[in-house]
Amino acid sequence: MPPRNPRAALAAAAQRFTFSATPRLDAELLLAHALGITRERLLLTLGDWQVPDTFNALVERRAAQEPIAYLTGTRAFWTIDLHVAPGVLVPRADSETLIEAAVAHFEGTAGPRRVLDLGTGSGALLLAALAQWPHASGVGIDASPAALGIARDNAERLGMAARAEMMAGDWTGTGEAFDLVLCNPPYIEVDAALPAEVREWEPASALFAGADGLDDYRRLAPLLPAQIAAGGVACVEIGSTQGAAVTALFEAIGLRVTVRRDLAGLDRCLVVTP
Ligand code: GLN
């Protein structure tokens, strides 16, 4: 019988999450989710609760290395909370670097009016930008029907459905120039070593981009000049070792590129202007 006492249950669960960098935090998030309260409230009132049966099922799933965000169904990104589920990449804090870059580009202006998110997934980048600039509207494009469903649901939940159009599509271009283009494409080498949590649970179509991880950048590069409006910018996520290679791809078609680092000090975002 798994423990009913919250302290014992958290300790027992955390012991099973040896693969995780944050076993105790994972256990706390799952117990808070099972109780329908925030982690902060759980920690302040730990002794007041009985562990519900639903916690045990969540612990089993986490022990199989399923991402916490799929288990709780939610992940915070920039200033918004997104619904996430298997079928979309879990939004990462690293990707907030793209929004920071956009904020820096538009500082002292009224901000972008039209925003494009290529490969929108859960809608994270587009919806974060629309939260940042309440007068903006935009388009999110994704090839995955499952992702589009989740992105539309997020736009609804955030009250942004009228400003966010989610469209099926591949890297083909939209025929409109946008003030802000956001893109977190797949960029992992197919045989890269990845945690099981990522490789076995997150969508391969959102992660992998050929032998050198650059396939999608090669396809995106020729689209960008026509997608970026005059005075606009594209903020494109890269893997931390890809700055020079992707900069060369974009400069070869006449774009101007600077590299921006994430909070870990790693190259993370190309800031691209026509
Ligand atoms: N940053 C993600 C990871 O390291 C990869 C996301 C991507 O390929 N766009 O797992």
Automatic annotation (TrEMBL):
Catalysed reactions, semicolon-separated: L-glutaminyl-[peptide chain release factor] + S-adenosyl-L-methionine = N(5)-methyl-L-glutaminyl-[peptide chain release factor] + S-adenosyl-L-homocysteine + H(+)
SUPFAM superfamilies in alphabetical order: S-adenosyl-L-methionine-dependent methyltransferases
Any single GO BP term: methylation
EC number(s) on file: 2.1.1.297
Pfam families the record matches: MTS, PrmC_N
UniProt keyword terms in alphabetical order: Methyltransferase, S-adenosyl-L-methionine, Transferase
Gene3D superfamilies in UniProt: DNA helicase RuvA subunit, C-terminal domain, Vaccinia Virus protein VP39
All copies of domain Methyltransferase small, residue ranges: 111-189
Entry function: Methylates the class 1 translation termination release factors RF1/PrfA and RF2/PrfB on the glutamine residue of the universally conserved GGQ motif.
Family: Belongs to the protein N5-glutamine methyltransferase family. PrmC subfamily.
Protein name: Release factor glutamine methyltransferase
Species lineage: Bacteria, Pseudomonadati, Pseudomonadota, Alphaproteobacteria, Sphingomonadales
